[in-house]
Amino acid sequence: MPHASEPDEDDLDAIPPPQPVFHVEQAVLGALLLDPHRLDDVSGIAADSFSTVAHAALYAAITTLPRPDLAEHAKNTKWLDRVLATSREQARGLTASYLHTLVQVCPWPRHAPAYARMVEAEHTRRRLQTAAGRLVRTVHDVSLSHAVQTVLAEADALAAVVDDIANRFPPRAGVLPRTTAPPPRTAPDPAEAVEEEQLLLATATAYPSDIDAVPWLLPDDLTLPLHASLWQCLTALARRHEPVDPVTVLWEAQQRGLLDDGSEPGEVLRMLAEPAGSVEHWGERVLQRSLLTTTEHAGRRIEAYAADPANTPFQLVVGARRVLADISAVRTRWQHATGATPPQRLRPAPTTRAGPPTTTAAHAARSTRATR
């Protein structure tokens, strides 16, 4: 007869084992419960640096209650009882036996500063992951009335988190995250993107003199490789002051080997023969989509870096700053396109490690740029 499982056996198997940081948090809490005066050697963490409610409540109680006399603390559990009673206000499931477990599992209480540094490092990783995820969600928020302005403000908030982490963990040169970056996603509305890019190309073909009005637009801003190639052809012909019409653009594309992907010449001619609106208008639309797409991909890359526990804070700072540089590049072009004046983003003050620094990111400077 097959073995009958206990009712809760499957549930227990489904519970994942604690992450390494859980054991590190136990070690630092055990050291402080055993010797509260080691709190003077611990810096860089606060209650919200811990990964569980119970550990956060215990650390808050340890840091707020008056420290006991060392001789008295060695004789009785009065201070531990007060810690337990205080922490239970936030985490009712805590027991006296768990406090004794924390003391027992701490390998070396004198290593409390090292344990705290590990807790701080893990907390910075969670902060970065949260900020990057918020940026990605903002890009996809269709309810925003000023999408670019709001997204760039959120990008500033993410950059402020990176700056704060850099103050706590100065990056080492050349240390990049080992995590594979996620592939870029397609535009949220590919049909709309394709239509607007076709109108841009056709209008620029009809009015080539207007191409000079959009020097901030790059081929990579267009979503389809064929569209990017045709924009290269248009700008090259305009730069050489040669005749521009659907036929000359098609011929330039052939000379550059840009039709090798199987594009039908007749389809290209028909697409380039249907202008509407202005080059500047469609250029801004394409650039706006490029900015949002770049920002979304940057947020997902940083989110992937932060989700990998193998990456150190040093690697996260270096990797995140390189990714944020992509946003800065397209942002600068957007400001040139719209005539917006960027505000000065406030950098957080360097964190002093003599005492427990704040663990919340500095508020990002809010963008006041108008979008079209």
Give structural attributes.
single chain; 372 residues; mainly alpha; rod-shaped; disordered N terminus
What are the SSEs and their pairings?
Elements: H1 9-14, H2 20-34, H3 53-64, H4 70-75, H5 78-87, H6 96-105, H7 112-139, H8 147-168, H9 190-206, H10 225-239, H11 246-255, H12 265-272, H13 279-307, H14 313-338
Helix pairs in contact: 2-3, 2-6, 2-7, 3-5, 7-8, 7-13, 8-13, 8-14, 9-10, 9-13, 10-11, 13-14
Tell me the total number of β-strands.
0
Distance between the termini: 73 Å
What is the chain-wise order of helices and strands?
HHHHHHHHHHHHHH
Instruction: Report the uncertain regions.
Output: 1-12, 346-372
Overall mean pLDDT score? 86
Structure description:
- The protein has 372 residues and is an all-alpha fold.
- The protein is built from 14 helices and no strands.
Write a concise synopsis of the structure shown.
The protein contains 14 helices and no strands. By secondary structure, the chain is mainly α.
